[in-house]
Write a structure and sequence with these properties.
The complex is a heteropentamer, with 1 copy of chain A (435 residues), 1 copy of chain B (308 residues), 1 copy of chain C (287 residues) and 2 copies of chain D (357 residues). Chain B is mainly alpha-helical. Helix content of chain B is 75%, strand content 1%. Classes of the chains: A alpha/beta (435), B mainly alpha (308), C mainly alpha (287), D alpha+beta (357). The structure holds adenosine-5'-triphosphate (2 copies) and magnesium ion (2 copies).
């Protein structure tokens, strides 16, 4: 139930979605609108700077003033859209033009029918993406955490969950390669590892990777929607993983170091907190999203040069994309389209990659050979591993309908140390989260 | 029958003035009252309605239901939160009070650089809590400055050996920030009450044979009680409802009630947001009720002693 | 002072009190030193007490501004935050004083039914937590379309500031004997002129003190700004919150912003210490 | 010149009657002192006249015109407060000029009149100073100047001297007396100090608990108090109980503990009435040796019980056959404790009033 | 009984000398009044004796023992402050009992002694009240009771009456006098009111700007001031300039504007010295008609210029060939302005001191 927008904007949308407008019409309209409000996670100074340095002048060329809102949590932007809509502000009247989004938040907007519409393939730069459903490489562009994008958002960056070690304390050869290795290593040297606490998505992802690794069927069942998967299968798929998490709990940083003795295990709240532990020498290994993360942190002085990436867990490294979405009550829809187009341009994607280590959102397969070569050149060297290795071990993300369930189980079973049987905890969480 | 002699002229101005006066009082109170009634009382009423299940904003209307309160009270995490909220609020109030009283007493003395010190001690009062948080992180984190100094002098080897002060349920980091920021506030209040008191009654006690400790205990302390009561009440209420410090420096689940309220409110699931409102109501009622009892107790105490 | 005076006098500090004051001054001032160092660091790893590489030597090797370069660049939004903090602070101060003055005057001077109730009500926001108010106000503002706007933030800031202002101003009015105003009236001044020529100049220091206090509270408030601002209006506290809430090590930019966030308070303290007279406080908080 | 008349003035606060049916007329150009103990309603009366407090009942008239309906700023009165109440943020000149400034008078005119006024109060050299830089007496003079500069029709003074120290108080008394006489301004002067009232006033009103108990010229009030409360308040501490035994042209004969007492006080009393006679300590004579005309007047033998030296005067406590009398003398001679003396009570200085419950 | 002796007591604050080399001995059981204008260092002297302020120099001895090293609470002194300083959070009984309570005395004993003390100050019925519920005089009596209950060896009183109103002040004066004599306690009493000092003290010390200018029995100080500042302060406002022309056994002959003046004041002065003679207003006699012995004594013809009626006394301003003299008389007769009179200045009441720069 979208609120009614103002007639001009509504007409623009229907015309644009119907393909009645040329891109020049869009540019003209965008110039009239004059500005665009982009809400994005603002926790990275590099990204913030890059947007101001690169995207802003680019949009200015089209007569559009870019206003970025650095939110702490993308949810805030989604809330704003919902609230605006609830108070009757439709297209052309809200406050959010574009959101950097993926997963659950997109799912929220999608299920509440608060998206502008299928625009992704109508941008000039849609040529840089596979959108054809028959093409397997289009999967990450058309499905976001298992939820179909319906072309209502356009990818602008990709990521992969990657781990790093400090070779000053842990030789790459001794580094674990699988979760079994990890457990062995932890039992030998307790306290040298920990992972980010769910519900931070970096924490969720670690849990998901554990689930993949301990499920006989691998990642496959986790791609399904909860309704399609069913509780029984879900218990089957997750039990092993959670038992593993429970086993290593006492051997994590601060965890007590012995079976059955729970100290005070530390699960850092955020990637920053995790990095701090590594830099302080409290742990030797950490995992988070960001292929180029270690490289960038070394470059910016936050990591010592002795830090290297490792491939862990082999064959189960979650990889995904994130997107630009336009909400249904965007005050400047045309300018939002221009923004989406600009950030998916080849030059800007390359610049983003080379300057701040944010991987390409566009598909290299759609690029010319020269461009592909340029892309390779633009990317930073990865310490200790190669891009190809990353690609070989990549697996897709978990369906967003399951994420909350996993989160709930982790909190109850690990964080709150509930005494209930694991199966019941799983069932409880399933029942509260799956509607 | 004799009619009473009417004298309208004489009584008219008086009547008019009184009416005007009443009207004027209402008029002058109106702006401040309006702001607080609409925003503050309105906010509380709205939160209360939501906690009872009335939230058209999220297309939820199960009004009235105690469901959200029942959920809350039946979860063990909530009661732990209650405990931590009290714990983090009470200890710094108490410790800070003792430090403040002593500092205020010391400030009355004559000493070199007193003027300068008057500036220095008020500094934490002037800057946001978040700055205190930031300073605490820099100093007290496991790899922080203090740990490094301890390493330098050979007391610890590894940051792991440094006691956990931040991100821990002991709440030491939270309390350090509170105390650091609130001691100046309480000191200022107590010091100002002391200034108003003047040294005379203490001198009188001294000439009557009371030693410094007796003088403090029997003469000074009872007289600065009003300042202490206000100071501790404000500080406790603040700590009880404080968000950013426990949010950043706390030990995660279960955290203080305000943080839990925020977490719940931050959830995309609307029903959880109504749960947040239930927490909010609990915080308000507990904090308001406690302070009411505290002040009522103090009033009675004072009344018994003939004051007020 | 002669030796004898020093020896027998109780006016001076005991050795422990001297230590206590020094300790206190140190706890306030000494954290600034590592904070300044941190703001100039580039590589600073455990267990070094000083950075192994400084900002000054690293700043030219990178394409993006780092450390202080970033803090002072437009990318940090620091100046926007400062401007917002000041604009909000001053608006709140003016508005708050404007609505608190008449109320304080009435509370200080007049007797009326329900006065106790009104007084109590005007003070309760001091004891009801900010989260409670913040969430509720957000709900109201969402409905009024004020969420995320300056006006909304200014209005929200009135909630914690009005009680303080009323308290301070009430005591100011109580301290001002009605004699002066009555004298002016007897000399022929009507109520308006009396207020303008007599009352206002005489309570000016009190107004300053109250105003400062309001400004201080407003510029320190995080939660209400954060809730009501919805990430759309950034002030110094919200900027700093974004930086420190990740729970990581304090990077040079955060250190720099921390230092800058302290500045308004320090400046305010320096220029106004003489207005924050303890006496004003005494009346305001001992009742 | 204006006549000030208050008629049946009454003020009730909540349930207590603070001013109770008081009527006073101050003739044009005269100074009336309102005398009474603390809390008796003096200030309240003054404030009602000024318009700062609204009377519960009664009327206030300036030259026969009721002013009840006029707000204070329109009554054109001058009021000097107990605590000077100078505006601390204005200089002496600004303080004095305030009343004129408010009336929109031109700057030069204000300057002229302020200077003139400051000359009268002899403070022309201090016009640039601020109140905090003045002594108490100077402040009070500024307050008076400020009040007088607007040529008020009525001057009200509320214990203007009670905050000054003894020496200054005396100086200011003289100053006010002279000034009031020079300017000839109708004045109501409130005080709780009998000496002040006596010295300054053309007429004195004595108030107790909101009621006007006595009104008359100073000597009358001083020497012939209406009742023992007034007597006590006026410092006539010698109260002698007695019964009227004879009444004739020459005076009234009382029977008191020490014998007979002749009183030349007007009024007629029934024989046998219990009354109180009073005489001021300074009106009793001490005779060291028995004089010649042994049986003339009221003479009593007594013993000096206490001697208190006050500087200029000496006070003796004398016990004379059951009477305990206080006598005040100039300190030209000194008697010693235990000395036998004879007291002479001048019948003309004695005064009687009925005994009270 | 204790003797209080201060020797060369000096106090310097920063750069100003507030008490300058003051030595006073208060004999056991006596009351000495320290008299002086505001700011002359009276309070500071008292505080040094109490131990509340540490002297810069000099010594304080109780019965010959220096107490400099003892903290105030061990000196066993009683001090009554100008503003009573009762503990507002304690009842009257608790206030009075505080000193005993502090000494760890048993509850019943405290109760007994408090009751006893309250009886002495006549406040036994108010023991449950709190200070805020008492009048000024009652508060001051509680303060005194509180001080005396511990049997202090020395009693220090700092202008204990200056906050009371005239009538109360007089009552309290008598009360203190009696009490002090009854208890026989060595007392140092600070005041700026000459009358108070005269009335109460066995000896009076006059301080100006930190210096003890004169010390002696009240009459001496009152009638024979050391210099014109003291004279003025003591209310002897008649200052007569003159030159010494003759000096013989009978007295000193001065040449003044109005003629010759005979003074019977001790001390020898060089002929031709410019001096000031002083006489108190109450020591001048007014003679209405020329008496018989025409040429005896200092007589001057004069005209009455002003008459001020003070109730018990009348003050005249008399102009007599260049002299402007104030005369105070009992109000048994009244003269009128313009009346010609003859003034008689008793040579024995005249007093001279050298003229000052
Ligand atoms: N606004 C008021 N409300 C209630 N009672 C009042 C008010 N103003 C004065 N009173 C009471 O009225 C009585 C008379 O007060 P008023 O000030 O007139 O006395 P006063 O004769 O001037 O005394 P003082 O010599 O102490 O100044 C006092 O008992 C006082 O408490
Ligand atoms: N602690 C102090 N520091 C500096 N100067 C002081 C201090 N205490 C008193 N003085 C100064 O010493 C002088 C004498 O003060 P003191 O209080 O002894 O006077 P006083 O004779 O008692 O006057 P008053 O009659 O007004 O009470 C004054 O000028 C005062 O300003
Ligand atoms: Mg009065
Ligand atoms: Mg003094």
């Amino acid at each position: 139930q979208q609120a009614k927008g103002n007639p001009v904007a509504e007409k623009f949308r229907s015309d644009f979605l119907a393909g009645k407008l040329t891109w020049n019409d869009v540019l003209t309209e965008a110039k009239k609108e004059g500005q665009v409000n982009w809400y994005h996670w603002g926790g990275s100074t590099e990204l913030n700077t890059w947007i101001d340095q690169v995207v802003k002048p680019e949009l200015a060329k089209f007569g559009i003033a870019l206003k970025t809102f650095r939110v702490n949590d993308t949810r805030n932007a989604v809330d704003l859209v919902i609230a605006d809509n609830a108070s009757g502000k439709g297209l052309g009247m809200g406050s959010v033009d574009a959101i950097w989004i993926n997963g659950e938040n997109f799912y929220t907007l999608g299920t509440q029918n608060l998206l502008f519409g299928p625009f992704a393939d109508k941008l000039p730069n849609s040529k840089n993406f596979f959108f054809d459903p028959k093409e397997p490489r289009s999967k990450l562009n058309t499905s976001d955490f298992g939820y179909p994008t319906n072309l209502q958002e356009v990818p602008w960056s990709g990521e992969e969950y990657t781990c790093y070690i400090d070779t000053a304390r842990l030789k790459p050869a001794d580094a674990p390669k699988t979760f079994q290795d990890l457990e062995t290593w932890l039992r030998k040297t307790p306290g040298r590892f920990t992972y980010i606490k769910p519900p931070d998505f970096n924490g969720n992802t670690f849990v998901e990777e554990v689930m993949y690794a301990f499920n006989a069927g691998g990642p496959e069942p986790f791609q399904k929607r909860a309704k399609d998967l069913g509780l029984r299968n879900f218990i089957q798929a997750t039990k092993g993983g959670f038992e593993f998490l429970k086993r290593i709990d006492p051997f994590l940083l601060g965890g007590g170091g012995r079976d059955g003795v729970r100290g005070n295990p530390i699960y850092p709240n955020s990637p920053d907190a995790l990095q701090t532990l590594l830099v302080n020498g409290q742990i030797d290994m950490g995992c988070e999203f960001g292929k180029y993360n270690a490289a960038i942190q070394i470059k910016n002085g936050r990591f010592p040069p002795t830090v290297q990436n490792i491939i862990f867990p082999q064959k189960d490294m979650i990889s995904n994309k994130n997107y630009i979405a336009i909400p249904s009550n965007s005050p400047n829809p045309a300018a939002a389209l221009v923004l989406a187009n600009v950030v998916s341009g080849i030059d800007n994607q390359f610049s983003k990659l080379s300057q701040i280590g944010y991987p390409l959102g566009i598909d290299p397969g759609r690029l010319s050979a020269a461009d592909q070569e340029a892309a390779a050149k633009a990317s930073l060297p990865l310490p200790g591993i190669t891009l190809a290795q990353l690609g070989d071990n990549a697996v897709p993300d978990t369906n967003s309908s399951l994420v909350k369930v996993l989160e709930g189980i982790w909190q109850e079973y690990i964080e709150r140390q509930s005494g209930k049987p694991l199966e019941q905890i799983i069932a409880d969480s399933w029942n509260t989260q799956v509607k | 029958m004799e009619l009473p002699k009417a004298n309208p002229i004489k009584h008219l101005p008086q009547a008019r003035r009184r009416w005007l006066g009443r009207f004027r009082i209402a008029l002058m109170l109106a702006p401040a009252m309006a702001v607080l009634v609409v925003l503050y009382l309105g906010a509380l009423v709205l939160a209360f309605l939501q906690s009872l299940g009335y939230a058209p904003l999220y297309q939820i209307n199960t009004f009235p239901t105690l469901h959200y309160y029942q959920d809350l009270f039946s979860s063990t995490g909530f009661w732990q939160s209650v405990f931590y909220t009290f714990y983090y609020a009470l200890i710094p109030t108490f410790v800070g009070l003792i430090l403040s009283i002593y500092l205020a007493l010391t400030l009355r003395k004559r000493f070199a650089l007193k003027r300068l010190f008057q500036y220095v001690y008020k500094l934490p009062l002037m800057i946001p809590y978040l700055v205190g948080v930031s300073l605490t992180i820099l100093l007290f984190s496991n790899g922080g400055i203090i740990a490094r100094v301890l390493h330098l002098i050979g007391i610890i080897d590894n940051p792991v050996e440094f006691p956990r002060i931040l991100y821990d349920h002991s709440g030491l980091g939270i309390m350090i920030v509170y105390i650091w920021k609130q001691v100046p506030f309480m000191t200022l209040i107590i010091y100002s009450v002391l200034l108003g008191l003047g040294p005379e009654s203490e001198e009188a006690a001294t000439t009557l044979g009371a030693n410094p400790w007796q003088t403090f205990w029997y003469v000074t302390l009872p007289q600065i009680m009003p300042g202490i009561i206000t100071g501790t009440a404000i500080v406790f209420a603040f700590n009880f409802g404080s968000f950013e410090t426990p949010f950043i420096l706390g030990g995660g689940f279960p955290n203080t009630l305000p943080v839990e309220a925020w977490r719940a409110f931050d959830d995309p699931e609307p029903a959880r947001r109504l749960g947040a409102m239930a927490i909010v109501m609990v915080i308000s009622v507990v904090s308001g009720g406690l302070l009411y009892l505290y002040i009522a107790w103090y009033r009675r105490f004072e009344k018994r002693r003939g004051r007020v | 002072m002669t030796i004898r005076e020093r020896r027998f006098s109780r006016d001076g500090l005991t050795p422990f009190q001297r230590f206590y004051l020094i300790f206190f001054a140190l706890t306030v001032l000494s954290p600034l030193i590592p904070m300044i160092i941190a703001s100039f660091a580039f590589r600073w790893f455990w267990p070094d007490l000083l950075p192994s590489e400084w900002w000054a030597s690293a700043r030219h090797t990178l394409t993006q501004p780092i450390g202080w370069d970033y803090v002072f660049s437009p990318y940090s939004r620091l100046f926007t935050a400062i401007r917002n903090t000041l604009v909000i602070g001053f608006s709140v101060t003016l508005l708050c004083l404007a609505i608190s003055l008449p109320a304080a005057r009435v509370l200080a001077r007049e007797k009326f039914r329900a006065k106790g109730l009104v007084e109590f009500f005007l003070l309760t926001p001091l004891i009801v937590p900010e989260v409670a108010i913040g969430l509720g106000v957000l709900l109201i503002f969402i409905q009024l379309g004020l969420a995320g706007s300056f006006v909304g933030i200014v209005l929200a800031h009135l909630i914690p500031t009005v009680p303080y202002a009323i308290r301070v101003l009430t005591s100011v009015f109580q301290n001002l004997s009605t004699d002066y105003e009555e004298q002016a009236m007897v000399l022929g001044a009507n109520p308006l002129k009396t207020f303008w020529h007599i009352t206002l100049p005489m309570i000016f220091p009190g107004i300053m003190a109250g105003g400062l206090f309001v400004f201080l509270v407003s510029s320190n408030v995080f939660l209400l700004t954060f809730f009501v601002g919805r990430g759309q209006v950034e002030t110094l506290p919200t900027l700093l919150f974004t930086k420190v809430s990740s729970g990581g090590v304090l990077d040079p930019v955060t250190a720099g912003i921390t230092l800058i966030t302290m500045l308004p308070g320090i400046i305010l303290l320096l220029i106004t210490e003489r207005f924050i007279r303890e006496e004003v406080f005494a009346k305001g908080f001992s009742g | 010149m204006t006549e000030l008349k208050i008629v049946n003035l009454t003020k009730r606060f909540d349930d207590s009657v603070v001013v109770d049916n008081v009527s006073i007329t101050v003739e044009p150009g005269r100074l009336v002192a309102l005398l009474g103990p603390s809390g008796c309603g003096k200030t309240t009366t003054l404030r009602m006249i000024a318009g700062l407090t609204v009377p519960t009942d009664g009327d206030i008239q300036f030259s026969g015109q009721s002013v009840l309906q006029q707000p204070p700023e329109r009554r054109n009165i001058g009021m000097v407060f107990q605590r000077y109440v100078l505006f601390p943020h204005m200089s002496v000149a600004q303080n004095v000029g305030f009343g004129l400034f408010i009336r929109g008078i031109s700057k030069t005119e204000i300057q002229r009149r302020v200077r003139e006024m400051l000359e009268i109060v002899q403070l022309e050299h201090l016009e640039k100073r601020f109140p905090s830089q003045l002594s108490g007496g100077q402040q009070q003079r500024v307050a008076i100047a400020r009040t007088l500069v607007t040529n008020p029709q009525i001057l009200l003074m509320d214990e203007p001297l009670s905050n000054l120290d003894a020496k200054l108080r005396e100086e200011m008394r003289t100053f006010i007396k002279e000034l009031q006489q020079r300017l000839n301004i109708t004045t109501l002067f409130v005080t709780h100090d009998q000496v002040e009232a006596m010295e300054l006033a053309d007429q004195v009103g004595v108030m107790f608990k909101g009621k006007l108990v006595q009104f008359g010229i100073p000597e009358e009030v001083f020497n012939h108090p209406h009742n023992s409360r007034v007597a006590d308040f006026m410092g006539a501490t010698n109260l002698i109980r007695g019964k009227i035994v004879r009444q004739e042209a020459g005076g009234i004969q009382l029977n008191i503990s020490a014998g007979d007492l002749l009183v030349q006080s007007p009024g007629s009393h029934a024989l046998g009435t219990e009354v109180i006679a009073t005489i001021r300590p300074e009106h009793i004579d001490i005779v060291e040796t028995e004089p010649l005309d042994k049986h003339v007047g009221n003479r009593f033998k007594g013993t000096i019980e206490q001697v208190v030296y006050f500087g200029g005067s000496v006070s003796y406590q004398v016990e004379a056959s059951g009477l305990n009398l206080k006598v005040l003398e100039r300190s030209t001679r000194m008697m010693t404790v235990g000395q036998e003396v004879i007291l002479r009570l001048n019948p003309q200085k004695l005064w009687i009033f009925p005994e009270q419950a």
